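4.2 Preliminary Data

To establish feasibility before requesting continued support, the project team ran the inverse folding procedure on a target of 204 residues. The structure was first converted into the token representation described in Section 3, and no sequence information of any kind was made available to the design step. The complete token record follows.
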């Protein structure tokens, strides 16, 4: 059991308030363990996109679409699976802006109207799932955001690959950023970024 796994096990027995105070410390430990792990291969961004290209759009069911990607990723080391999650999170974070949210068709963000942060996240997943060229175009041109199309299953690829790799059900990895809608404060007109702990505590 690693330091991180031990911390997660202990945290299940702690009061919620105290647990929240440990979030930043847990992130530090994960960073420390992660960066002290010696690996001969690093999952590069280009490799990430090669893996994304394994999504099989000839299939109809989501599980069949993601299956080739999950099976291939499961062949990699645990550290590389974490790296995949890090890169995916970074890509989704970059799309988490008010301008992208305003360009989703009928589901677009409009001040004073109901807006689904979850659906916006799933739409951002669709952008990444469509590959490097489409992603780069949409990052620079928010008006090209997909309308009425989403792909939530992309969020669970690393988790499922990890489960196949380790035989464990629990997926405890937390990236340095979050992909949840609104975490990219600068993308929503804020003046500074916030930590995961601040986000969990409802920091505005």
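Position-by-position output of the design step:
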């Amino acid at each position: 059991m690693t330091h991180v796994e031990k911390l997660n096990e202990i945290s299940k027995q702690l009061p919620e308030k105290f647990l929240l105070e440990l979030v930043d410390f847990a992130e530090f430990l994960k960073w420390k363990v992660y960066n002290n792990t010696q690996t001969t291969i690093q999952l590069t961004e280009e490799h990430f996109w090669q893996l994304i290209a394994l999504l099989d759009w000839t299939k109809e069911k989501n599980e069949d679409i993601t299956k080739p990607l999950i099976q291939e990723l499961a062949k990699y080391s645990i550290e590389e699976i974490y790296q995949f999650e890090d890169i995916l999170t970074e890509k989704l974070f970059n799309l988490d802006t008010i301008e992208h949210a305003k360009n989703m068709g009928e589901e677009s963000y409009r001040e004073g109207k109901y807006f689904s942060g979850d659906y916006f996240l799933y739409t951002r997943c669709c952008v990444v799932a469509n590959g490097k060229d489409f992603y780069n175009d949409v990052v620079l041109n928010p008006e090209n955001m997909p309308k009425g199309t989403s792909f939530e299953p992309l969020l669970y690829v690393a988790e499922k690959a990890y489960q196949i790799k380790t035989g464990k059900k629990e997926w405890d990895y937390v990236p340095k950023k979050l992909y949840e809608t609104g975490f990219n404060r600068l993308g929503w007109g804020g003046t500074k970024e916030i930590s995961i702990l601040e986000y969990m505590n409802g920091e505005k």
